[in-house]
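tool_call predict_complex ligand=flavin-adenine dinucleotide
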Amino acid sequence: MTEVMHVETDVLVIGSGGAGMYAAIEAARLGAQSGAQVLLADRSLIGRGGATVMAQMTVAAALGSHVPDHWTYHLHDTLQAGRGLCDEGLSQLLCDEGPDCIRQMDEWGVGWARKDGRIAAAMAPGHDRPRCVYVDFLNTGPAVSKTLRAVVNKTSGIRKACDLLITDLVSHDGEVVGAAALHLTSGAPVTIAAKATVVATGGLTRLYRRNSASANMGGDGYALALRAGEPLIDMEFVQFFPIGHLAPRLIGMDPIMWDPFRYKLGGRLLNGLGEEFTSRYGSREDGAYVLTRDLATYAIVKEVEAGRGSPHGGAYLSFEHCPEAELRAAFGPVIDRLANNAIDLTRMPVEVAPIAHYHMGGVAADPRMETEIPGLLVAGEAVGGANGANRLSGNAVTEALVFGRRAGRSAAARVARMTSQPFRPRAAKAALDLVTQDSALDSPNSADMIQRLQSIMAEDVGPFRTREGLERAIARIDDLAGELGERPFGDGQRFDMRRIDWFDLRNMLLVARVVAQAALRRTESRGAHQREDFPGMLPEWRVNQVVRWHDGHIDLVSAPSAQGLVAAQ
Ligand SMILES: Cc1cc2nc3c(=O)[nH]c(=O)nc-3n(C[C@H](O)[C@H](O)[C@H](O)COP(=O)(O)OP(=O)(O)OC[C@H]3O[C@@H](n4cnc5c(N)ncnc54)[C@H](O)[C@@H]3O)c2cc1C
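tool_result ok
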């Protein structure tokens, strides 16, 4: 067998987006006196791999710099948007501690935009007042990532490991005691012994053909936790962003960048016939920007279905009515980047269409970011419940920062209580066998399998669902799982894409199955989950669905929602 590389640490953080980096910083800071060691591991480059570095817009926090605000107002809006399904303890944590993390990031030099010397905040849909801070509308996520990377680099006690694909969590005696991994650049199998493990692997939008995410967002953390015995909640709630860029080709820019400009300038949404159409779907929107994400998605999808879509299958977004100077004032350097892509907004509309963007569901956790399994913590988008059935703009980066910090604290506290390393090599054997196994010579085309899965999800588990479509999707996912088999593809040598795809597909298929099955069971429409065959929101469905993995089977049960303050609307 290939030689196994073994690493020992006190805290293992899996994923180095905003949540993972903040968790590592906090765990190392609190563990400094006892000399606690943190290992920050990522399948990509540290701080450059996931959604955080791509987020170009805003971060929600009730700072009240210019307009009075309080975290309870932010909580109220978050719970309203969550349509009765938020885990209120988590939502409260997000809103209450958001301002503190924003100020901490300010001290670390992130460079939040300022007005009259105080941190500026923009208005965003669903918030009752300007509450969304930003660096500028191109650099918010990159600045957040860069700042955290700099703090990680100067915090002693943090070791970093990039190109490390965590393939399984390792459990012993009912506790998570570390992980097994594949070192992508060498092909080496790796085991990591840890007293506390934080899963901060982000979301799952790579499951969909059109998505706003990087290629690392295939739901790894959900699959890792589920296979380790931890429940997931609210998995049916995938958020689609209505006006994701569709055409012409746009390189080097966030596909969801149109939102703030639409907000600022009242960009007009037109169908293929050049007509404003959202009023047909019950909106007062024409000329203003008031439509929520789920309703705008609905309006665009229905226009396309009626044969009135734009040439590439979406809608037009036009700023042609805006004077050039106004466009330049609002878009600033974006105008030049658009020009590099041969887009001149004074003369042409762009095409937009719904795009998979964020996942509200995830690993169940308490407000300490602890899970049911001792030794397993979770942070960021990997956590389910804070946003219920629908997330407000700007809440995701806040969630990454706040939950990351909290997970780091809890991990450090656990390490302080423990006297010995609970890892046992034999507990990692099954996971390591998978990493090192020889494969069959003629394995299927893994890249093609990923595309087929993305099509299944786009066609039948997208923003609008039916029983027939979901059942078809589940059958097709099961067929793909049969094709994938139990034995990894490829030879497991350096950067073996077929082997990497096999591990990715193993997780993606499990998570896709869970999303589809939860969507099939929820026979109502709520927030991001819209059933064409069950159009209304039903009081009896004001429950969270909890998913467990038992002997290779997915079990789904309903649990009463922990949202009590605001009545479901
Ligand atoms: C284009 C885009 C724009 C957005 N804009 C905004 C915005 O303006 N405001 C807002 O609030 N939110 C926005 N969001 C959402 C927000 O960015 C994310 O929800 C948030 O950044 C998630 O942070 P995270 O740390 O949980 O995960 P991520 O930042 O996604 O990091 C996860 C990390 O885990 C690593 N990883 C995954 N699996 C493994 C594995 N098996 N082994 C090792 N490492 C692994 C990945 O490589 C990655 O580095 C946007 C998202 C996108 C995609």
